[in-house]
């Protein structure tokens, strides 16, 4: 394995979706410019490219029983991209025309599941597929290799319906059967066969698709033809919704079966933690992972052993082995990199909002905290809004803490991790309880910790957090300076310019472009003349989720009224700049944030 890692590093490969076969390993790499499937031979130490898809490969799964692998790619016959004298242009007749990170879409293309026979090299196109919001497992293969389960859109051509269901593909007959036919709406995915192929575990929700709906847990019994919901009374979010800026290519599925087939394992997001749970077929759930940690990846070995990659504030990554109820650390080369590196720890805060809602958060303490010294405080607001600040390593917070700041990470209304009511609490309520939750958390920290300097308060956030930063500086002048990242400022214009705008506001606020006055009421730009806080706006030029025009409008509005403001634009970058963008830009971004706060 050491030799393989050396090969990857020396050739600049991007290693994703690795699958071990006898004497070899299948993986996805962008070594040729586009992501393709490669085969590494352990005996010869050589890699060989297997696929040559015109639009690259987006996922990989092995069918060991049949000596083949499954992959997804975009295929199509009729293109919506044209050319005139060699210059490309697009022509559309539907609404979904953009996607962040991809640009204008060629609507003649669709995702397809394909099978590659390793012996003959032949490829067969099987069936269209689609991956649901935030899910990882694209296809599950039965032990005998004869059945595949995948997620498909119910109405592939619809501009508004993103509901999905699970289908089973029979390799012998080529027949496709819907498994979740009992639910006319909803989103279902992450399905995985039990070892004996008699059952299928998956997560989903039968309600019409909305990002604020928590997933639930289901098992389909093939022998009885019965679909059951497990642990219906457990009010949690299944999956990993933790915020971080260091984890890339995390692809291990959320659900995995024990070899015995009588239990399976699933992760949940709860109170800033991502927990690994053992689930019985009766729906009993037992938490296995330690408190105040985030399980980023886990794997169940063939002999039933559990391995997990976990993160904590002062431990970016740790590999653990579950033995007799305890998690024992395993040595890794990564751990050695952090030897001697000082990292800031977190402390927890919980309080009750005036309306009875829960306000929970984490305070990243300044490095080498001296309680007799006064420290500035930065309120850091996550995006989503349906994500969750967590007990994991967060480089942005660590960087600011290392430079003498306390960083407050709050999960206000709209965050995952605190039950469906809390998550749904932001629906049609932007700038209301989410705002008061954040302000109450700041008040609590200032009152509780004498070393926090109430005269040096700052605020930053990205995406939805950028919206809240813009909103906050229009509502209060208590912050000395603010940094708004990949933000939203004008919901009227964003309705038609964001890749998700036209349905996002319908889902989030129950509004559309026929109600511009109501969209404007909750747009920070409507109140830009009230801003007194010096504001730095950081934005990626090619951000199509929160388009650059959102930052431009707010910036020009601020300058029009003579306010202190700066705009930084990063070329060739998408909405993911802070998480997976160009490293040099990520460094500049952090230095600019710190410099802005230091100036004020």
TrEMBL record:
Q: Mind listing the UniProt keywords for this protein, alphabetically?
A: Hydrolase
Which intervals hold domain Peptidase S9 prolyl oligopeptidase catalytic?
Answer: 391-599
Residue ranges crossing the lipid bilayer per the database entry? none
Q: Does the keyword Hydrolase apply?
A: yes
Q: Which Gene3D superfamilies match?
A: alpha/beta hydrolase (3.40.50.1820), TolB, C-terminal domain (2.120.10.30)
What protein is this chain from? S9 family peptidase
> In the UniProt record, does the keyword Hydrolase occur?
yes
């Amino acid at each position: 394995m050491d030799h393989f890692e050396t090969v990857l590093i020396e050739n600049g490969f991007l290693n994703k979706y690795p699958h071990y076969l006898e004497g070899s390993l299948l993986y996805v790499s962008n070594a040729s410019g586009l992501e393709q499937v490669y085969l590494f031979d352990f005996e010869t130490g050589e890699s060989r490219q297997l696929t040559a898809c015109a639009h690259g490969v987006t996922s990989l799964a092995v069918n060991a029983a049949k000596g083949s692998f499954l992959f997804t790619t975009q295929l199509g016959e009729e293109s919506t991209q044209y050319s005139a004298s060699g210059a490309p242009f697009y022509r559309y007749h539907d609404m979904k025309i953009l996607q962040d990170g991809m640009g204008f879409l060629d609507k003649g293309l669709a995702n397809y599941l394909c099978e590659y026979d390793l012996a003959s090299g032949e490829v067969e196109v099987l069936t269209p597929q689609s991956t649901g919001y935030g899910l990882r497992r694209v296809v599950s293969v039965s032990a005998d290799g004869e059945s595949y389960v995948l997620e498909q859109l119910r109405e592939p051509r619809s501009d508004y319906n993103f509901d999905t269901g699970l289908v089973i593909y029979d390799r012998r007959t080529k027949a496709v059967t819907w498994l979740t036919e009992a639910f006319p709406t909803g989103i279902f995915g992450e399905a995985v066969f039990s070892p004996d192929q008699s059952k299928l575990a998956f997560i989903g929700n039968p309600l019409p698709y909305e990002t604020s709906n928590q997933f639930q847990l289901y098992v389909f019994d093939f022998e009885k033809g019965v679909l059951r919901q497990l642990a219906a009374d457990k009010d949690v979010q299944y999956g990993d919704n933790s915020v971080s800026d260091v984890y890339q290519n995390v692809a291990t599925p959320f659900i995995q079966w024990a070899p015995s087939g009588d239990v399976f394992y699933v992760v949940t997001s709860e109170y800033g933690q991502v927990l690994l749970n053992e689930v019985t077929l009766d729906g009993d759930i037992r938490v296995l992972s330690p408190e105040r940690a985030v399980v980023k990846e886990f794997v169940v070995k063939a002999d039933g052993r559990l391995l997990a990659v976990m993160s904590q504030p002062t431990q970016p990554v740790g590999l653990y082995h579950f033995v007799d109820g305890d998690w024992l650390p395993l040595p890794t080369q990564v751990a050695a990199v952090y030897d001697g590196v000082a990292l800031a720890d977190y402390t927890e805060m919980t309080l009750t909002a005036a309306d009875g809602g829960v306000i929970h958060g984490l305070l990243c303490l300044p490095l080498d905290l001296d309680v007799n010294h006064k420290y500035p405080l930065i309120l850091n607001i996550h995006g989503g809004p349906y994500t969750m600040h967590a007990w994991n390593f967060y480089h942005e917070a660590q960087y600011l803490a290392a430079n003498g700041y306390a960083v407050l990470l709050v999960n206000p209304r709209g965050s995952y991790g605190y039950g469906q009511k809390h998550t749904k609490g932001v629906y049609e309520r932007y700038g209301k309880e989410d705002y008061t939750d954040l302000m109450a958390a700041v008040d609590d920290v200032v009152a509780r910790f004498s070393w926090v300097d109430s005269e040096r308060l700052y605020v930053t956030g990205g995406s939805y957090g950028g919206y809240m930063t813009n909103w906050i500086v229009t509502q209060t002048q208590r912050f000395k300076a603010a940094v708004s990242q990949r933000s939203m400022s004008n919901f009227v214009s964003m309705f038609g310019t964001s890749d998700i705008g036209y349905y996002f506001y319908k889902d989030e606020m129950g509004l559309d472009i026929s109600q511009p006055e109501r969209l404007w009421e909750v747009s920070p730009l409507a109140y830009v003349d009230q801003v007194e806080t010096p504001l730095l706006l950081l934005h990626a030029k090619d951000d199509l989720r929160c388009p650059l025009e959102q930052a431009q409008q707010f910036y020009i509005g601020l300058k029009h009224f003579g306010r202190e403001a700066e705009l930084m634009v990063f070329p060739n970058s998408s909405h993911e700049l802070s998480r997976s963008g160009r490293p040099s830009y990520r460094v500049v971004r952090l230095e600019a944030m710190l410099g802005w706060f230091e100036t004020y």
